[in-house]
Automatic annotation (TrEMBL):
InterPro entries: Haem_d1_sf (IPR011048), Host-pathogen_enzymatic-act (IPR051200), WD40/YVTN_repeat-like_dom_sf (IPR015943). SUPFAM superfamilies: C-terminal (heme d1) domain of cytochrome cd1-nitrite reductase. It comes from the Bacteria. Coiled coil: none annotated. This is YncE family protein. PANTHER family: DIHYDRO-HEME D1 DEHYDROGENASE, PROTEIN NIRF.
């Protein structure tokens, strides 16, 4: 230290500058920080009077909040794991009693789009399920699933979260091997979705390009899965993962090969009484009705649609069904019982590009999720009169919305 100071002073002298004593060392002491190291600054969500809808905006990486009473979007929250790239929040499920929202992250195919769901179905990136807090959508946990998550649902009792995988790439990569081409259901215990170290879900091989799921009530012991790539409705015993999966053909016309489809079942929605499942097939353009008790399709009730049908909605008494179709873009109310056999159809292309999903709220109307152009034009959520199908309200949401769940207002 002395030598260093001597050399320093010699150098200073050579440069004709003075060499004085070093500056005194000043020590600053601070009190311990009493706040949170990473404070939660997410705005709290106040459920409006009449309840709210949660809409997954798959190419905006957001969830839009829509008032059920007015149909207006009153909030938007970012979701996902990566703040830079697209995580693709695809469909959403809610456990209001447990205060949690579950969203499937289905990373888009960067090489191109195949199938009826455009950017979904061709990715090689493993998906995730995130558990979010209902009061502000902060992350409570996450668990890894397989590539191309399709639908996500939660059992009525809140004890099972089930995810399908609309994995068209798996089908194309295994042209001679049906078993290898089949994707799985991921069965998740909500209590085990943690911020880190979440155990792997139970994966049950089901069928090729599985998508829409309907669960038995109230415990979700059985899953009914629309299998786009295999033209069947799969019946899965979720209480026994080793049990044989039943695959019921949706129609009598067999496909020319195990890797081609004539029907393309895409959505499965259970009736309010749990006795019937409406299955929408986008290739054959029809809605068929599956009897849960007999495990057969009732061909006498088949509904043919002009456009490709997507996720329908039942009336509370099960007497009619609302079917959104694409190309042409329409919404149709169809009676399905002897007491209600009327049909109301509306071409809605001027207001709703690519209707994807219908949800009926008894008090406030029929909600229709419209995808938009899936590229730059934001999607929309329309609120319609359930009887006339006339528009009551219209609100813009994010890019490529594809899911909506309703949350009742908090009890006073």
């Amino acid at each position: 230290m002395v030598i260093s100071r001597f050399l320093g002073c010699a150098l200073a002298a050579a440069m004709l500058v003075s060499c004085s004593d070093p500056e005194p060392i000043i020590e600053y002491r601070y009190s311990a920080y009493e706040g949170d190291a990473y404070p939660d600054r997410l705005p709290e969500i106040t459920i409006p009077e009449g309840g709210m809808g949660l809409v997954s905006d798959s190419l905006s990486d957001t969830i839009s909040l829509v008032s059920l009473a007015t149909g207006e979007r009153f909030g938007v929250h970012p979701v996902g794991r990566d703040p830079v790239t697209i995580d693709g929040p695809h469909h959403v499920a809610v456990d209001a009693e447990g205060g949690a929202v579950y969203v499937a992250l289905s990373y888009p195919d960067v090489a191109g789009a195949i199938g009826p769901h455009a950017v979904h179905g061709g990715s090689v990136v493993a998906g995730y399920v995130q558990k979010l807090a209902l009061d502000d959508l902060r992350i409570l946990g996450q668990v890894r699933v397989e590539a191309n998550p399709g639908d996500i649902v939660i059992s009525e009792d809140g004890r099972r979260v089930v995810v399908s995988h609309f994995d068209l790439k798996r089908v194309l990569d295994n042209p001679g091997n049906v078993e290898a081409a089949r994707s799985s259901l991921a069965v998740i215990d909500p209590e085990e979705v943690l911020l880190s170290g979440s155990p792997e879900p139970e994966f049950i091989p089901v069928c090729m390009a599985a998508h829409g799921i309907a669960l038995s009530r109230p415990d979700g012991a059985r899953a009914y899965v629309a299998c786009y790539g295999e033209d069947v409705l799969a019946i899965v015993d979720l209480t026994d993962p080793s049990a044989e999966v039943k695959r019921v053909p949706v129609g009598s016309t067999s496909s020319p090969s195990p890797h081609s489809n004539n029907y393309g079942p895409y959505a499965a929605v259970m009736s309010p009484d749990g006795k019937t499942i409406a299955v929408s097939s986008t290739e054959s353009r029809d809605v068929r009705f599956f009897d849960v008790a007999s495990e057969t399709f009732d061909d006498s009730r088949k509904i043919l649609t002009i456009g490709a049908p997507y996720f329908p909605a039942w009336t509370p008494d099960g007497s009619a069904i609302y079917v959104p179709t694409q190309v042409p873009d329409t919404i149709v109310r169809i009676g399905v019982t002897p007491d209600d056999d009327g049909v109301v159809t509306r071409n809605i292309a001027d207001e709703c590009m690519r209707p994807h999903l219908a949800q009926l709220d008894e008090e406030h109307g029929l909600f229709l999720v419209c995808e938009g152009d899936r590229i730059t034009t934001p999607g929309r959520v329309l609120r319609l009169d359930p009887e006339t199908l006339e528009t009551l309200s219209d609100t813009e949401v994010g890019l490529y919305p594809d899911g909506l769940v309703r949350v009742a207002p908090e009890a006073p």
